[in-house]
Amino acid sequence: MKNPFNALYRFFKSLYLCSRFFQIVFGIAILFLFSFWAPIIYPFIWLVVIAFLTIVLSEIIALYKDDLFSAERILPEKFSNSDENIVRLQFKNKYGFRVNLEIIDELPVQFQKRDFLKKANISAGENLMLQYVLFPVERGEYFFGRLNCYVFTKLRLVKRRYSFCNEQMVKVYPSFLQMKKYDFLAIDNRISQIGLKKIRQIGHTMEFEQIKNYVFGDDMRSINWKASAKHGNLMVNQFQDEKSQPIYSLIDVGRVMKMPFEGLKLLDYAINSSLACSNIALKKSDKVGLMAFSNKIAAFLPASGKKTHIQQIMSTLYNIDTDFNDSDFGLLYAYTKRKITQRNLLLLYTNFEHLSSLRRQLPYLKALAQKHILVVIFFENTELKKLMETNAENIQEIYQQTIAAQFSYDKKMMVKELQKNGIQSILTEPADLTINTINKYLEIKKRGLL
Fold this sequence. Notes:
The chain is an alpha/beta fold and 450 residues long. It contains 12 helices and 21 strands. Helices cover 38% and strands 27% of the residues. The chain is elongated. Mean pLDDT is 87; it is low at 188-193.
């Protein structure tokens, strides 16, 4: 047997009075005040009060005679970090009249948004689909609270609150939307439209595939003279890109990668880039692996060419986060020497703010470059760049711009220092990291440096 007190409690908890209700009550109070000087209108005011209460009661009965409204929040299986993700809201009105809606969705705390409000109306017996966009900047689990729907009639005197979809959770993964975007464009003829470069191929860095008949436009240097003499017409050797070349993404998860730019940590830029680059490498039949390190090895995945390996990489990157420890490049070198025995392309995502910090790690970088093709990827400070572009108006601002220019000069000197020691590098703005990394990978592959 249901407890009547619980039912009464739920009723009052879901009942809300609209602003129009209070406006009418205020107007009635003013009429009662005027009736002090005009007693003749006093009985008529009570008639207005009775009529008003009757209308309010009838609206409450219409809204509460049964649960005739339903709603559902439709979430995707997972969110893509640093991308626009669509959340859909579906409503169904079973009332016999048109209702107005005020929708308050309790978003995850990571968004820090407390002013979510959407308004709509639904005709009798109809369905309605709404959607909105969320832009997460952190990986992890996001918990949605209640989907609160305030239903009221065109009289707008009282509202009834419905609550749905308690405690829904969605996981935010590294940017798989960006991965799919570059996966498509990297094999398309329009790659230059988004900044991907076409690399001129130098020499024959290819694997032999077959011998075929010569057609106009084939490279004359590929003619197979023995096969031509045997068949009585020109035959050429056909080559294909070398496959199964191992590519490792080495991601620094130390304190230097905790710096945020445009709401996203450097680590997240590195993770999104490594995921997109790994996916393209797998599409080109190369092997891809992953290592994350700081003062310890946070994660390691051996290189594999399986197409399903990208899911394992994504799951590993999902759980990686930065800490406040200094990264141990000596540990990186020792672990790489033990675990990665053959020649590989190593894409090292890290950051150096001072030339002295690079020089401290340079012996380990040189040791890695002796056995592997090492590409050191680090970041331009876009905030300092903006500071240098502003007009200085006083001595303090001139001093600040001078310091910013010195930091910018140090970054360029780091690139030269690495080149002098035979180490390739990418100095990039965080927003251009993925494009520049893919360009470097395609360049190294086409030139047969690996």
